[in-house]
Design brief:
By secondary structure, the chain is an alpha+beta fold. It is 35% helix and 33% strand. The protein folds into 4 domains: 42-62 and 345-417, conserved putative lor/sdh protein from methanococcus maripaludis s2 fold (Beta Barrel), CATH 2.40.420.20; 75-106 and 234-263, RNA polymerase II/Efflux pump adaptor protein, barrel-sandwich hybrid domain (OB fold (Dihydrolipoamide Acetyltransferase, E2P)), CATH 2.40.50; 109-230; 270-340, Efflux pump adaptor protein, beta barrel domain (Elongation Factor Tu (Ef-tu), domain 3). The strands form 5 sheets. A 6-stranded mixed sheet has the order 1-24-20-19-23-2, with no helix packed on it. Strand 19 and strand 20 (373-378) form a beta hairpin. The longest helix has 61 residues, at 109-169.
Length: 418
């Protein structure tokens, strides 16, 4: 009988190897999960539903689009100087008028009656002043007549005194007769001196009063002219040659003094008046350049006037054409103007898109070189215009960016295309 043989136990059995392999694979899986796996949040998106643009390096110019309304370059406004009821209308809106052409006539019975009353009072006052002038002339002649009379009496007294002086020397007459003759002569001389002084004073006073009366009459005549001119203002006339616009008046309609009746547009060119968001008020200045496209051509403009009053968040500017003007534009037409804020400069740009609404220009989704996914990357947006955003940081020319809306992406770190 043979002896039993001791069998040596195997150290590496198939089962043991399989178990160790399974454990190793599990450890590797854990390491992958903990270290190597992409842990970023992701979202699967349909590539056909997004818009992709390439980052470019090109000339960039900052501008904003604004709507400009066409107006005549120069306009003269027509206002009612005097109020009244429209009695007659001579022209229609849009007609070409010559200076002085009558536009309409107003009637104002109260003003006409008041004019007649004032005219009557002024004529009465002028008549009284003229009578005063006549009185001054009469006084001058009365004083002259008095002097002539005194000179005649002096001549008589002088002759009488001379005769009596001879007779007195011959002792023919008494002392009393001689003394009376001498006294009468001297008295007449004194009277003449007094009358001459009075005439001098009267002349000075008369000249002064005549001048004052003349000035007063002139003022009254001017007042009469003004009254007649006010009555003439009931006829509204064209102040200058041009086209009548914004005019509307019906017979029997009441117009108040100072009311705007219409305007005369001069045929010397056009301007554009635009409303600009108040955010740009500190960046807008006189002479600032702009462009407008019309009928296949580009025309250049510059800001000529800034209205700083802000209404509903906007302020107005007037833009004048520089050089050639479009031939076919019409008053009231609206044109889109590109208001420039800078000259063309080299820049990195991306096309405008809906992504800016969710990101504020702080980040975008950049496509991987494989084109199978996109990842979030921070950027910094600078200036902008109607076509592009200027990229200050975060992008390089040639990279591709998702520019459509990010509203449905939920801010995921990675977008995987399917």
């Amino acid at each position: 009988m043979g002896m039993d043989r001791v069998l040596e136990k195997k150290k590496w059995t198939v089962r043991k190897i399989l178990n160790i392999s399974a454990i190793g694979l599990f450890v590797l899986f854990l390491l992958y999960l903990l270290v190597f796996r992409d842990k970023s949040s992701r979202l699967y998106v349909d590539a056909a539903q997004i818009t992709i643009a390439t980052v470019e390096a090109e000339k960039f110019q900052e501008f904003i689009p604004v709507d400009g309304v066409v107006y005549p370059k120069n306009t003269v406004y027509i206002d009612a100087v005097q109020g009244g009821i429209v009695e007659r209308v001579y022209v229609e809106d849009g007609e070409w008028l010559m200076k002085g052409d009558t536009i309409l006539k107003l009637s104002n019975a109260n003003m006409e009656l008041s004019l007649m009353e004032q005219e009557t009072r002024i004529y009465e006052a002028i008549n009284n002043l003229q009578n005063t002038l006549i009185g001054l002339d009469q006084t001058k002649f009365i004083r002259q007549k008095e002097i002539v009379q005194l000179q005649y009496e002096i001549d008589q007294a002088q002759r009488d005194f001379g005769r009596k002086k001879e007779l007195y020397g011959e002792a023919v007459i008494s002392d009393k007769e001689y003394e009376d003759a001498e006294r009468e002569y001297n008295f007449s001389i004194k009277q003449l001196h007094i009358s001459l002084e009075l005439k001098k004073l009267d002349s000075i006073s008369a000249i002064r009063r005549s001048r004052q009366i003349g000035m007063t009459i002139d003022r009254m005549q001017n007042n009469l002219d003004l009254l007649r001119e006010n009555l003439e203002h009931l006829y509204v006339r064209a102040p200058i040659e041009g086209q009548l616009s914004s005019f509307s008046a019906e017979i029997g309609e009441t117009k108040s003094a100072g009311e705007h009746l219409g305007q005369i547009d001069l045929r010397d060119g056009f301007k554009l008046q635009a409303n600009i968001d108040e955010r740009y008020i500190s960046r807008v200045h006189i002479g600032q350049k702009a462009e407008v496209d019309f009928a296949g051509s580009t025309y250049h403009l510059a800001i000529d006037k800034i209205y700083t009053d802000v209404t509903n968040g906007f302020f107005q500017v007037d833009l004048f054409f520089e050089g050639e003007e479009p031939e076919l534009i019409k008053r009231g037409q609206t044109l889109q103007v590109r208001l420039k804020f800078s000259s063309p400069t080299d820049a990195i740009v991306i096309k405008r898109g809906g992504f800016i609404q969710e990101t504020g220009g702080n980040w975008v989704y950049i496509l991987d070189a494989s084109g199978t996914f996109a990842i979030k990357r921070p950027i910094r947006i600078g200036r902008q215009n109607t076509q592009y955003y200027e990229v200050k940081e975060g992008l390089q020319p040639g990279e591709r960016v998702i520019i459509s809306s990010y509203e449905t992406f939920g801010g995921k770190q990675k977008l995987v295309f399917k």
